[in-house]
Amino acid sequence: MGMAGEKILVVEDDELIAASLVRALTAHGYEAQRAANGADALSMFAPFDLVVLDLGLPDMDGVEVCKAIRAVDPILPIVMLTARQDEIDVVIGLDAGAVDYMTKPFGLAEFLARLRAQLRRTDSNTASSIEVGDVIVDPASRRAWHGGVEMELRAKEFDLLVLLTSEAGRAIARDRIMTEVWDEHWFGSTKTLDVHLASLRRKLGEEPGQQSRISTLRGIGYRFELP
Q1: Cα–Cα 20 to 30 A to 76, which of 67, 83, 118, 155?
Q2: What is the pLDDT of residue 119?
Q3: Residue 2 domain flag
C-alpha cells in the first residue's frame, strides 16, 4: 500500500487508461491525479512525489515534458509509459531524465511494484554525500563529480554509482544490484547491468582493458575499490 501523503501524477491522454491507473493507485493508498496533456503536466507536477508520464501526448512530446520537469526538479522520479517498441526511443527517454519505463500493455502488479521501488529509492536518497577518492556523489541532488568535474549520468548509472560508492571496498552481488538499482521484480536480461557498468567506467575516465576502480568479481559481482 502507498504511504500516507505520497502523491502521484499520471500524465496520460487516453481517458480509459488514465482512469484505470488513477483508480488503482487510489485503491492502493496513493493520492493520484491525472494530467491529460504536457502543458497541464508542467503546470501541475510541483507538489507530486512521482510522475507517470506517457510519451505519446497530444500537444507535445513526452520526452520534452520529461526534460522540462527535470530542469526544474532534478530529483522527482519520472516513470515513462510508451507504446513504442524501438530501443532508441527508450534510450532517448532515459537520457531525458526518466528513471524507469514500461512498455504498453503492462500488468498492474508490475506497474505498482515499479512505482514502489522508485518511491523507496527517493526516500533513501536523502543521505549525505559520498566521497571515495576523487569521486563525490550527492544522492540528494542526484549529482556526481569525478576529479572536480560534474559527470553526466543517466538515472540508472547514477543509482548504480550510489550503491557501489556507498559500499566502497565491499563486494556487491549482481543479484543485489539488479534488485536495488532496478527493482525486485526485474525479469529482463542482466546484460543491461553490463552495459551500464561499461558506460559508467567510461565516464570515470577509464578505457577498455585498463585497470578499473570498479572490479569485476567473477561469479560474484562487483566492488568499487578504495583509493
Answers
A1: 83
A2: 82
A3: no
CA-angle at 175, arms to 106 and 66, nearest 5°: 45
Closest by Cα among 124, 134, 141 to 165: 134
Domain that holds residue 190: 130-224
> Are 55 and 93 a contacting pair, CB within 8 Å?
yes
Termini Cα distance of the chain: 42
| Low-confidence residues of the chain: pLDDT under 50 | 1-2, 4
Contact 50, 119 (CB under 8 A): yes
- Give bridge partners of residue 224 from the DSSP assignment: 214
Amino acid 46: pLDDT:
92
Task: Count up the domains in the chain and report the number.
Answer: 2
Yes or no: say if 69 and 57 are a contact pair by the CB < 8 Å rule: no
pTM: 0.59
> Which pLDDT score is estimated for 86?
67
Instruction: Taking the CA atoms of 203, 206, 212 and 217 in sequence, report the sign of the dihedral they define.
Output: positive
Same domain? For 39 and 107 the reply is yes
Residues 6+ positions from 20 with CB-CB distance below 8 Å: none
Cell of 134: 576523487
